[in-house]
UniProtKB/TrEMBL annotation:
Organism: Blastochloris sulfoviridis
Positions with a binding annotation for NAD(+): G115, V116, I117, G118, D119, T139, T140, K152, K161
Keyword Cell membrane among record annotations: no
Record text on cofactor binding: Binds 1 divalent metal cation per subunit. Can use either Co(2+) or Zn(2+).
Role summary: Catalyzes the conversion of 3-deoxy-D-arabino-heptulosonate 7-phosphate (DAHP) to dehydroquinate (DHQ).
UniProt-recorded name of the protein: 3-dehydroquinate synthase
Subcellular location(s) per record: Cytoplasm
Gene: aroB
Length: 382
């Protein structure tokens, strides 16, 4: 896709990946500008919009109108909302629908929705005709600050989270911040976990700012826009240096080794949203770091306090229906994509903003930690 100046007034960042570089535009009402933005870059393309039913009911007509105005013919493919759509069955249906719509190599798939849709539609785009380009139009906080950027796409397996997928970068990201006005509070909160993650990884000043100003971020306005931009900038920088997670990109997995195991244990269901699992997983990563003597217990407490203050879960007893036995969690952890020759990798921390990739973490230490966490949950049921 050729680089172009944007027809709309929006904040613009760039993911620098040589021939796969692309823009991230952030601002209100970008859905209405999607036609002009895409036509400026890919005139004459045919589009297939993938959306879940909830997002389709809210925004499909508007984006279709924008595409019609820019003379971009578009078909729509609807799927059920929720993590369950990151499945082989739904993936097959989307792939067949894209082929049926005669989406060719020069055309575009448009992922309109949250991270589920971005991961699913992006993966479908990566395989149809051995790869067609796609555009991310993220409509949740989580997808605007994280999943729409970086090119990880995929679906879940019975063995665990995101175990089938591909690296396939989008050619453009249009984050319409006004779409967040219709997002349910629980979903906004879940997305906030990934915002806080950037502070915890390597930006202590950002985390401190969030501790002071999180209410403004939740309320909307400039603080929210700033938080989205800071998050995208942090992710774009890491992805630009390590597109395929051979090194530092693994830092973006802070909280995810525990979190993905918890998502599997709760059946990839609405009992625990991805962002909620990440919040709990980050609290656990810091408590585990403290247990290993890597950071002070007060640091882990500070992290937990902030996540809890915004209403995110930080302890196992807050997961509706529980998470089952520790052996089930350990099985899921053994399937984590960061495992190398059977050795476990975790993202641990020496402090707020001091995350690092810890390779060859002893399974016995992880198990003992999870047993302690489980005992504590059983002693204090919610
Ligand atoms: N590829 C990556 O780098 C990456 C990064 C983080 C997370 N993820 C994945 O993203 C997924 C989670 O994404 P999510 O939290 O966006 O979930 P989601 O896509 O399921 O969206 C959450 C819910 O909000 C609804 N919704 C979306 N936009 C809305 C809007 N503007 N108004 C009202 N309702 C709206 C959806 O219908 C859905 O029910 C997980 O599968 C996770 O693994 C991927
Ligand atoms: O982009 C990344 O890299 C991340 O790890 C971002 C995570 O927030 C995201 O949930 C990602 O899908 C997890 O990646 P996975 O490789 O552990 O499945
Ligand atoms: Zn995540």
């Amino acid at each position: 896709m050729t680089e172009t100046s944007t027809p709309t007034a929006a904040r613009r960042l760039r993911v620098d990946l040589a021939a796969r570089s692309y823009d991230i535009l952030i601002g209100p009402n970008l859905i209405d500008a999607a036609g002009a933005e895409i036509a400026a870059r890919r005139p004459g393309a045919r589009l297939a919009i993938v959306a879940d039913e909830t997002v389709a009911n809210l925004y499909l007509a508007r984006i279709e109108a924008a595409f019609a105005q820019a003379n971009l013919p578009a078909t729509a493919i609807r799927v059920a909302p929720g993590e369950g759509s990151k499945s082989f069955a739904v993936f097959e249906r989307v792939v067949e629908a894209l082929i049926d719509a005669r989406i060719e190599r020069g055309d575009l798939v448009v992922a309109l929705g949250g991270g589920v849709i971005g991961d699913l539609a992006g993966f479908a785009a990566s395989v149809v005709r051995r790869g067609v380009d796609f555009v991310q139009v993220p409509t949740t906080l989580l997808s605007q600050v994280d999943s729409s950027v970086g090119g990880k796409t995929g679906i879940n397996s019975a063995h665990g989270k995101n175990l089938v997928g591909a690296f396939h970068q989008p050619v453009l990201v249009l984050a319409d911040t006004a779409a967040l006005d219709t997002l349910p509070p629980r979903e906004f909160r879940a997305g906030y976990a990934e915002v806080a993650k950037y502070g915890l990884i390597d930006d202590a000043a950002f985390f401190a700012e969030l501790e002071s100003n999180w209410r403004e971020v939740f309320a909307g306005g400039p603080a929210r826009l700033d938080a989205i931009e800071t998050s995208c900038r942090a992710k774009a920088a890491i992805v630009g240096r390590d597109e395929r997670e051979s090194g530092e990109r693994a830092l973006l997995n802070l909280g995810h080794t525990f979190g993905h195991a918890l998502e599997k244990a709760t059946g990839f269901s609405g009992r625990l949203l991805h962002g909620e699992a990440v919040a709990l997983g980050m609290a656990q990563a810091f408590r585990f770091s403290a247990r290993l003597g890597l950071c002070a217990p007060s640091v882990a407490q500070r992290v937990e306090d902030h996540l809890a203050e915004v209403g995110l879960p930080t302890r196992l007893n807050q997961v509706a229906g529980g998470v089952g036995p520790v052996d089930g969690l350990m099985d899921a952890i053994a399937q984590d994509k960061k495992v190398a020759r059977g050795a476990l990798t975790f993202i641990l921390a020496r402090g707020v903003g001091g995350a690092f990739v810890a390779r060859d973490v002893a399974p016995d230490a992880v198990k003992a930690f999870l047993e302690a966490e489980t005992l504590e949950a059983e002693a204090a049921p919610a």
